[in-house]
Fold each of these.
Amino acid sequence: MTKPLRIALAGLGTVGGGVIRLLDTNGALIARRAGRPIEIVAVSARDRSKDRGVDMTRFEWVDDTTALAQADVDVVVELVGGSDGPALTLARTTLAAGKSFVTANKAMLAHHGLELARAAETAGVALKFEAAVAGGVPVIKGLREGAAANEIERVYGILNGTCNFILSKMEAEGRDFADVLAEAQALGFAESDPSFDIDGVDAAHKLSLLASLAFGTQPAFGDVAAAGIRHVLAADIAEAAALGYRVRLLGLAEAGPGGLFQRVHPHLVPVSHPLAHVTGATNAVVAEGNFVGRLLFQGAGAGDGPTASAVVADLIDIARGEFGPAFAMPADALTAQGPADAGERRGRAYVRFTVADRVGVLAEIAAAMRDAGVSIESLMQRGAHADGSVLVAIVTHEGPERSVAQALERLRGSQSLVGQPLWMHILG
Amino acid sequence: MTKPLRIALAGLGTVGGGVIRLLDTNGALIARRAGRPIEIVAVSARDRSKDRGVDMTRFEWVDDTTALAQADVDVVVELVGGSDGPALTLARTTLAAGKSFVTANKAMLAHHGLELARAAETAGVALKFEAAVAGGVPVIKGLREGAAANEIERVYGILNGTCNFILSKMEAEGRDFADVLAEAQALGFAESDPSFDIDGVDAAHKLSLLASLAFGTQPAFGDVAAAGIRHVLAADIAEAAALGYRVRLLGLAEAGPGGLFQRVHPHLVPVSHPLAHVTGATNAVVAEGNFVGRLLFQGAGAGDGPTASAVVADLIDIARGEFGPAFAMPADALTAQGPADAGERRGRAYVRFTVADRVGVLAEIAAAMRDAGVSIESLMQRGAHADGSVLVAIVTHEGPERSVAQALERLRGSQSLVGQPLWMHILG
């Protein structure tokens, strides 16, 4: 057996501990598969004294995380997090030192992926990040290699487990968002400051990486239009169900002549679509290719075990000498595309208004839709809330998104509306 | 750009034509991803004069397929089929000539995979077969690389699109097997001699490859217990639905201390399981790993486009210099395991009897179950057929399979039974 692949591990939180535990548990099997042992030799984290449930004395402890780049290792694994700061410094110094770099850090890659991919190519080393998207699900590999023969027409999926946990619990139990969020926080499924997850930022980071891999474009996180699930009501989920849909927060990207389209938004997913059956904290990604058709990758989107599985899969690739290009092609071959105009897209929409219970409201909404050229497929008005407000939900026929935006613009400031309308796209 | 990867293509049927069409259509994109162009230079098939809808004059024509191994190429792609004969000769001579070999031939690999993997290692070339299992779905890569950090506890899935097409049509339309098979044959979804598909042989070939990849065992096709869907009635599907299940032909493999368990059999799949929602000719494979949990890979299981996508994905890997071990580890590291004793397995079962409509039948069945120690969870008896026979369907509590086998043995030859009982396992 050839000599071990030597690893430095930065960050000893849940995932870092999972990586150590995984290599302890499956080490012999992994050595058979990788052709050589994979050995952690140096570690670094903020707090040396913390009990992590595994013997840490066997590893060299490095106080300064960024100094791991100078350790006598082949690969640095970064599980520190943060789009800049120590993680980015470590990435740059590791690649500059001619060592491979493995990370789960979607935020850093969304912002600095192109620079880091160039640095890895210059050094002739690997930059790998399977754990950055969809946890344990090998979807980065699926796009970079498995679907590599295809022009990808569209990539989309459930990229945030916290949101899917909340939405599927709202669906199963008929409860409202705030209520379920509080429970998710108590259970540890949502952060005490949940904004990153529930407002779609985390999914947007991941989507920008998937889009780059799928379309051969430079990661363009700044062009992702992101919205979250804060404003989805239990009543919206019930209306959707009555119409044959489930509500899911989807990240969706398409490349076209008009530019790169990237959006994170709550969608209505037909029950006949596999994503409608993805519940709980599971992640799932669909890639549609011009030869392969629709591919689906699904599994646990977070957690120490799945994420460690993805990190170590990258290490096995590196141990096998399979470095691959970080974004599926050389960094200089990635094109810079501007954002597509969402108004040009055609689709069906669900628009829900909370309205005052008074004469003429429906006529006002219907007139705004008509004047903007929006064709209504169905309209539901349901009971009155305790506060006297009423829900009106509309499903449109297929048409340009611009028309729906114009209709909503016409209704802005109307005394008939209570709060903002909720616009969800229907996955077609 | 470095020099092209030169390909010889054996077999110009549907898939071979798809590979040519794919490289014609996506060639520039593939060259960006692979780092070099992929070029077919030589081809061979039975009939030179046949019109294949693409210009064949640009390729060197080789009359003797097995002579392609001597062509001036880097890789031979075999799409001839057959477990032995020209395909096997070509595989052996290609690898012996120090060229990489890509194939969609599950039957050949199920029978000769170990020998060919050894030959590829000896020659230091690649042996790749993504297209051999689940068409365009990158599940070979998913197991060999994506899930490589895990001890795989179980691998199972819908491996035959023809059977899934038939079962889901029976389910949707309440029609019986023979009727739907005839339609599938008319539509070209089933062969005129459909036995290979509907009796589970094709799925068994694929399962033996998945099991080897998942468990680090030598491919052991001879140890797969295979049954098909011939004896599934529309009434069975209806009973299953009433109980919250869908009927799917699953290949399922597990490794344990008692040996390697491999079975292709119709199963009851709970509607809460993603495989219950896989309809039509789609394939889907689940791998359960000790760290990653449950991974699902899903997509088109056949057809020229998806299969060509998988073949060319293998070629891109080879163009990138990523050869990998054929069965996820060196051939000599694969262990030889005997078959596990199915009787030792514990599970729940669906057993359906067609019975004569007369006094005492239920008592006889119930007594046989009791005497074999089978605990009955539910029993349904439904109406009489035109021929006077009646269906009795039983769902058992969890118990050893041996007990169910013993109960059926006790009832063998009973005058109360019309034809063979149907035993389906319930996916747990």
Note: The first strand of chain B starts at residue 5 and ends at 10.
Amino acid sequence: MANCLVAQSGGPTAVINASLAGVIRANQLNPLYDRVLGGLHGIEGTLAGNLFDLTDLSGREIEVLKQTPSCALGTCRYKFSDEADFQRLIDVMDENDISTMFYIGGNGSMSTVAAMTAWAAERNLDKRFIGIPKTVDNDLGLMDHCPGFASAAKVACEITHATRMDYDAYTRPEVFVLETMGRDAGWLAASTCLTGDVDLLVLPEVDFRRSIFLEQVRAKMEQQGSCYVVVSEGARWYDGTYLSANGKAADGLGHAMLGGAAGRLKSMIVEAGIVPRCVVQDLSRVARSSNFAMSLVDLEESYDLGVSAHMRSAKPEFTGQVVGIRRGQGSDGGYNTEFFACPAADLANFVRPFPSEWILPNYQGVSDKALDYFRPLIQGEPKLICENGIPLTMHPFNRR
Amino acid sequence: MANCLVAQSGGPTAVINASLAGVIRANQLNPLYDRVLGGLHGIEGTLAGNLFDLTDLSGREIEVLKQTPSCALGTCRYKFSDEADFQRLIDVMDENDISTMFYIGGNGSMSTVAAMTAWAAERNLDKRFIGIPKTVDNDLGLMDHCPGFASAAKVACEITHATRMDYDAYTRPEVFVLETMGRDAGWLAASTCLTGDVDLLVLPEVDFRRSIFLEQVRAKMEQQGSCYVVVSEGARWYDGTYLSANGKAADGLGHAMLGGAAGRLKSMIVEAGIVPRCVVQDLSRVARSSNFAMSLVDLEESYDLGVSAHMRSAKPEFTGQVVGIRRGQGSDGGYNTEFFACPAADLANFVRPFPSEWILPNYQGVSDKALDYFRPLIQGEPKLICENGIPLTMHPFNRR
């Protein structure tokens, strides 16, 4: 019996480890593989042969792993694309008797799954590659939503509501601007509208118009004496330049380093003389990898996707596939999770924007349809195991 | 039977409403006052006669109020100090048949309690003023700790741990700098050391020395390839200038507008060429008024302080007093909360710094004694009532 490899890639989420736990647990229930080996620090450590044997984690360890945010195996920002890397991955798999690789990641990782599958097929190699999606940006195609997104949305909603209440406690004239992650898609920023606390919403999907935005800020201040703005880090001008653009270098993958859109809006608002001060709160990483406001729906779906990917891999021809979630309807008429698989090639490197038909004009937020989409995803609070007042977490395998 | 007045002042906390709920509930259990009137927007709205009758909140409403962060009555930044204001407060009390005022606040509010008590005594006025402390800064004298601090510390700890895990998932050379509130006292920043995740800690209690700090950052990067820094917003140079000082105006009370210390450290670290990039996370208001990581100990103590203040006011001579918490020992040898009262004048306008004997040299964090002090305070997680995925909150009385 051969072994399998699991690796994580891209930015951390609150529930990426739940998918990892699902793969490990599924192999305990049905040992399709002799060993479940974790690739440390994503593809970077995997190529260097840094693996960690996860096969025999105890039930308790798996429970703790499920509630551990970030990436317990570590991650990387590494451009995996050339022939030498492909060959090196096959070599590592051969050296460790690995037949199947599960890759938990976002757009880039799903492209890797597609590319490796094609490369192995051309060479008649008996290696399989299976994708398990995750991204707080919620921008993968074909699926209803991505694991990790709902927990980030829930943290964002909780903080939006708390900071709105903090803001509303005062009478002084100021504008509040909250910034969320999300890269080029506005899903995470838009989700904060669930709270009913957002006055103005600035998304990457709408070309930013300074004059219209400032007019709206002024109108809110005049009408209600307050204005709570949420902006996505990827908000941009009509020419595609990010609002936050301030000469920052791109990272090694050609991604722009975002962050700073809220500060930019603050400057505009204060310079326009609308209010003398403006409070900026940048959620940054707090939203993506916190476990204090995990969505139970998200946690369970992410775990189940790990199990589903493992189970489906019982069929030898199951390769180059990504497992995903569709929105079904339960017998009670409510939300129900449905699992499916599709070719990784079909969603590789495609960024799914927040639907323009759900965006209200003049930065007024999103439609009821959008709220209906978001609402079921952030439901439920897992009972976390706490120790000394904070949730217990797994000591990262990449730091042992 | 006369009425009582309750008002909130200063910055919001996660549990200031729990103290309010305690006063309201105590009066339902033992109606010492005919009506419990809330002063809206702190002393500012109170002076304008804006009151809200809280006497008959339902049991359910009181439960929701307890878990509502921020200030449900609203707050203000208003310098309450001149004779005209004092007389106006007495007039509002007379107009509304109010004999007793409960004032929930920090240093400034406790000074107000002392000043109003003295003023009323000089004029033989039959009015009483009772202080209920709150501040996330934990800088009030005479008491073991301040309500609101522990929940802020718990949020700070949870986010420190989550962002440390996020940071540790990567291999690239960068430094992480987290900034907390706390004004001129380092309690909140220091509490994050409970996580074991903090490599370097910069507190207002230690004059900042650039060269020593950068030497330590460099050493951590060389030793372990990572460096996680926590800095208090009030960190300062030997001459008292804030690290964050960048020409910002003071607010109406002469308080400097803090925030930006982490950005300043980032600049120093990058300019010194230690690492090419540095991640900054400013917790700002997220720590002070979030209810997703409330400390159960803090929540219960804050509620009980409201009850205690009301109960003690059954004695006609109880005025000019502040109720507070002492650290007792339970029959099991563990932490136990003890309630006491002391004259407001004894703690007015005194800022209690984080003890210098608990600070390790060279920014290495805090001693075990400090951790022993913090640990019992962040214990326990209240079961929050949630609706549609986020904790239910009371619609602020000042926005009705």
Note: Residues 186 and 203 of chain B are 5 Å apart (CA to CA).
Amino acid sequence: MAAVAGEPEVIRDKAAMRAWARRRRAEGKAVALVPTMGFLHDGHLSLGSVAAAAASASGPVAVVVSIYVNPSQFAPTEDLATYPSDLAGDLRKLAATGAVAAVFCPPYLYVRAGAGGSGHETWIRVERLEKGLCGSSRPVFFRGVATVVAKLFNIVEPDIAVFGKKDYQQWRVICRMVRDLDFAIDIIGSEIVREADGLAMSSRNALSIHRSLVNAKTAALNGNNHSQQIKDQIVQTLAEAGGQVDYVEIVEQESSVALERMDRPAAICVAAWFGKVRLIDNIEIQTHHPDGGASI
Amino acid sequence: MAAVAGEPEVIRDKAAMRAWARRRRAEGKAVALVPTMGFLHDGHLSLGSVAAAAASASGPVAVVVSIYVNPSQFAPTEDLATYPSDLAGDLRKLAATGAVAAVFCPPYLYVRAGAGGSGHETWIRVERLEKGLCGSSRPVFFRGVATVVAKLFNIVEPDIAVFGKKDYQQWRVICRMVRDLDFAIDIIGSEIVREADGLAMSSRNALSIHRSLVNAKTAALNGNNHSQQIKDQIVQTLAEAGGQVDYVEIVEQESSVALERMDRPAAICVAAWFGKVRLIDNIEIQTHHPDGGASI
């Protein structure tokens, strides 16, 4: 994408962010939000391009990328302090895309505890979709994600928000929250960006997971819709590659309900440990009913 | 208040409501929301006037009253089906105030459950303030209130919202939610409207509660800041009047943390049973530090 917008405006204050977005709206632009935790790679950068493209189809758009490492989605056992960051590098990469009008990088977003227990205490839970998959080993993760995203929505007041489908469960949780709480925001799920060899763009992912998912999809499209057989194959493939599966689940795409048979649009979601690194990946499969009817 | 606005516009659809509010904003008006469950009395009607007055101080305002009996704040043991309603009467009363531009009365607000567990599943909890007081005997109540109010905020997108301070804990829960989730909405707590004899405007309230609260306030301002003594006196007064106290609590105003001594701005909150009717009331007391310094 050619650099046309130049340097994005860097905004650190909530009120200034909201005022900026309202000015863009008053100018007749749609506002598109891309929430990130920074340390950006090409997968993130593609989200901004998706936001610009999706919105510009219906008129001018101002893309806002937020960079904020959200403490509430880390458990006490998880290492928030060592989460990587590189704000200067992030700003340089975003400027180079030419697609980003503003970067929102607040130093903090939560009220700190004061006297009388007055700290942050409001939490949003998406009670079914937050369970299972990554929610099983990270019980506070989606509560933290839903809550910080709602805060960002109320600060930026975007018309559009873009989430990567690499974090499949997160994307579905956000879609469900937006529906249930009536946010006036279109959520766009951006396709996974992969390296030439198929590796999902992430600092922690493994080619073997992707290969196992592609093989599973091929098997499913060739008629094997038995979820357990497919899952067993993935577990075995990853074990042979030196990984240990945390979970592999085959779920109905929208509801994340487990499927015994892939007889409707399905997603295979995998998390696995390779040494001390936990990797996730997923693949969507548009399977059909065995009677040959339309997909649901 | 003189009738100037005439008949309010009656809106039942979410998208139509949001579009209506956005048009008012585009005209340069602030939008003020007054959420109710209908069956309006003068206490409710005063909220609309408060909204109009508060907003008009800084420019023109469009007041929206919502009427929706929120099922999610009723427990299965509580009687949602017999909650009183009188929409025609409500509309007549609101038209007579001349202060209300629109009435939002949706037939439903929650997604119904479909296949694959796709019904409403997103809940907002204000984890400390929802506990104690009315939350002790009504454990899902404030979860339901916070969630439906967030939905109404996202549908109407108001600049201002008005809540009656008769429902003291509810008002504080909403203030905390708005702070924690960064809603761009000014919350106004409207003072309790009372009959000439001091009875709070409610179909279910009792003069004896109000009298006991006024006596307690007098005692506190005369120097008795021992919460337990004040509470014992209220329990005894209400027992003599034939009531049975569900709770009487003396709390710090903003945090709702219990106070042993009323040495800072306090609220006394009471719930009591008179026969099969549960009544609530409260009073605020601006007490001072015993050292004669400024109040906190």
Note: Residues 1-5, 290-296 of chain B have pLDDT under 50 and may be disordered.
